[in-house]
Write a structure and sequence with these properties.
164 residues, alpha/beta, Rossmann fold, five-stranded parallel β-sheet, 6 helices, 5 strands, 43% helix, globular, binds adenosine-5'-diphosphate
Length: 164
Amino acid sequence: MTIALYPGSFDPVTYGHLDIATRATSLFNELVIGICDAPRKHLLFTTEERVQLVREAVGHLPNVRVEPYSGLTIEFARKIKARVIVRGLRMGSDFEREFEMAMMNKKLAPEIELACFMASLEYEFISSHLLKEVAELGGSISCLVPEHVAEALTRKFSLEALER
Ligand code: ADP
C-alpha cells in the first residue's frame, strides 16, 4: 500500500494541479493532497477555503483525500505514512526550486522519495499566481480552473473591491 502526498499552497487549485493529481492517483493506492497552512506567504484564500475548493474539485477521484497541514512537509508526510512526495514541474524555474527542496528533504527524511510529474502541454502555462492577476483584472479564467473556483475568485475580488 503506497500512500503519496501532493503538497502545495493551491491558492487556488487549477487545472494544472488537477492534472498532476489525477495522473498520480493511477500510480499510488492513496493520494493525500496536503494544503499548506503557510502564514508567511501572502495567500488570497484562507487554508479552509483552499481545502474546500480542492475537495470539491477532486470529489470524483475515489482514492484522494485533502488535508490541511502546517510545519514541515516531510513531517506531515511521515505523520500520514506517505512514502512519496508528488510535485509538478513546469519549464525552467520549477526545476531549480524543486531540486533544491528535494535535496533538503532527502537530507531530513531519506526514507521519503520524490516523484515529479512533467506538466501536460495544455496546462504548462497555468500558475495560481498569474491566474489571480488575470482574474483580478476581469479576464476570463474559465479554461484554467473549475467553475466553482472561478466563482470563488470572482467573489473574493468583488469583496476586496468593496472593502477598498
Ligand atoms: P507551492 O506554493 O508549494 O509551489 P503550488 O500550489 O504553487 O504550491 O504548486 C503545488 C505543486 O503543483 C508544485 O509542485 C507546482 O510546481 C505544481 N504545479 C502548479 N501548477 C502546475 C501546472 N500548471 N502544471 C503542473 N504542475 C503544476
